[in-house]
């Protein structure tokens, strides 16, 4: 086990009957709050109830109700609003995109400079302060609820960036299964699978650590076993998905490990940019193809396929073990209505030459599993597309 440091001061609430308690705790953070949320939450009618509870607790509320495609340009406007109105708390209600937006606003509003340059450099926040921050998850997915990461785009140029550090961890997080009902089945399935994928990458990366690997398996098994009932709208199962995704981002899947390999996320960024599809379906479709590309016939991969996906590879050759593991994932994808190839999700035929232009733009792909050349990355993406490699 590697040495590590961990800090999280946030309070986690779970349950559908915690509106009043959430409002009282929010009031303890600030009497002036900005609530940012997606259109789904606004249209559901739940926003009005949350506003009323906050106001009853003595909190004056400003609302940004439609963050369908948030950007740094929109975040700057919200930062200025917070400064002008002396707002002390930002509440992000939604999925990862909305919660990341809230983190950026809470951080940027406390600075006297434009924070986009440091976001673009993808490092830790340079300032030592932010506004109070609360997150309310309506979409069990990437664990942005309580982690210290926030992604952002600049619409004017199309560039993307992020900030990563303990300063961005929320002071208060509420997981309300009632807010996550009504999500269309395919969207719920893809979103939940991203947490399984993140946990899987953590399991395989950074050496062996029993605690971290068992935490990864707990996340994966909980989601894979709860997803069928969640797709039927059962709130108990939706709550299990929310909690597993949140704990995945909370950190235990990487305790005692070296740095998690980033190559899947790097390659996903190319796919997301070129195919113009969101992070969630892009990384979900890419995952099994990435597994195939980084496979090595060692204990970690065989253990992962067996313990997370139920694929017993004992007595099989390396290629046979890999195929059995991939077959198990493929069956699960079929059961949950998840596409196996990019072509099945969004037909395109880029060809190797055009795709290589996008592969070259971000620079080399670093990985602790193997060396990736530009041709290797292009071949991986084309296989994930479902195209014949020309």
Written account of the structure:
It is an enzyme of class 1 (oxidoreductase). Keywords: Oxidoreductase. Its EC number is 1.1.1.1. Residues 11-177 form the Alcohol dehydrogenase iron-type/glycerol dehydrogenase GldA domain. GO terms for molecular function: alcohol dehydrogenase (NAD+) activity. This protein has 390 residues and is of the alpha/beta class. Helices cover 52% and strands 11% of the residues. The chain contains 16 helices and 8 strands. The protein has helices spanning 19-29, 39-44, 46-56, 72-84, 96-108, 116-120, 185-204, 210-231, 235-250, 263-275, 279-294, 299-309, 318-336, 342-345, 351-360, 374-385, and strands at 11-14, 32-37, 60-64, 89-94, 132-137, 149-154, 159-164, 172-175. The chain has a 6-stranded parallel beta sheet, sandwiched between helices. The chain has a two-stranded antiparallel sheet with strand order 6-7. Helix 7 (185-204) packs parallel to helix 9. It is globular. The mean pLDDT is 91.
Key features?
390 residues, alpha/beta, six-stranded parallel beta sheet, two-stranded antiparallel ribbon, 16 helices, 11% strand, BDH-like, Iron-containing alcohol dehydrogenase
């Amino acid at each position: 086990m590697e040495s590590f440091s961990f800090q999280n001061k946030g309070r986690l609430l779970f349950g559908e009957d915690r509106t009043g308690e959430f409002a009282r705790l929010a009031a303890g953070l600030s009497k002036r709050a900005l609530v940012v949320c997606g259109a789904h939450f606004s249209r559901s009618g739940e926003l009005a109830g949350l506003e009323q509870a906050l106001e009853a607790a003595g909190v004056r509320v400003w609302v940004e109700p439609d963050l369908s495609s948030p950007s740094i340009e929109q975040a700057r406007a919200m930062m200025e609003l917070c400064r002008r109105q002396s707002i002390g708390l930002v509440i992000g209600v939604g999925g990862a995109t909305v919660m990341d937006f809230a983190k950026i606003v809470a951080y940027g509003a406390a600075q006297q400079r434009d924070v986009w340059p440091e976001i673009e450099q993808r490092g830790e926040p340079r300032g030592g302060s932010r506004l109070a921050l609360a997150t309310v998850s309506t979409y069990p997915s990437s664990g942005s609820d309580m982690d210290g990461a926030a992604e952002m785009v600049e619409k004017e140029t199309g560039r993307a960036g992020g900030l990563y550090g303990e300063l961005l961890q929320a002071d208060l997080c509420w997981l309300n299964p009632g807010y996550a009902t009504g999500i269309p089945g395919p969207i719920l399935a893809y979103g939940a699978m991203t947490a399984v994928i993140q946990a899987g990458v953590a399991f395989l990366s950074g050496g062996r650590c029993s605690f971290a690997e068992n935490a990864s398996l707990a996340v994966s098994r909980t989601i894979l076993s709860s997803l069928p009932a969640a797709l039927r709208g059962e709130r108990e199962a939706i709550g299990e998905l929310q909690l597993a995704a949140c704990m995945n981002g909370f950190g235990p899947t990487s305790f005692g490990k070296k740095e998690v390999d980033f190559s899947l996320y790097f390659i996903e960024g190319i796919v997301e940019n070129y195919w113009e599809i969101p992070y969630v379906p892009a990384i979900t479709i890419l995952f099994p193809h990435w597994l195939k590309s980084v496979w090595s016939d060692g204990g970690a991969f065989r253990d992962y396929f067996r313990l997370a996906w139920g694929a017993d590879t004992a007595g099989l050759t390396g290629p046979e073990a890999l195929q059995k593991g991939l077959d198990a994932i493929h069956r699960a994808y079929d059961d949950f209505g998840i596409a196996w190839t990019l072509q099945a999700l969004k037909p395109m035929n880029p060809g190797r030459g055009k795709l290589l232009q996008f592969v070259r733009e971000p620079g080399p792909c670093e990985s602790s599993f193997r060396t990736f050349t530009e041709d290797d990355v292009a071949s991986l993406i084309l296989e994930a597309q479902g195209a014949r490699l020309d």
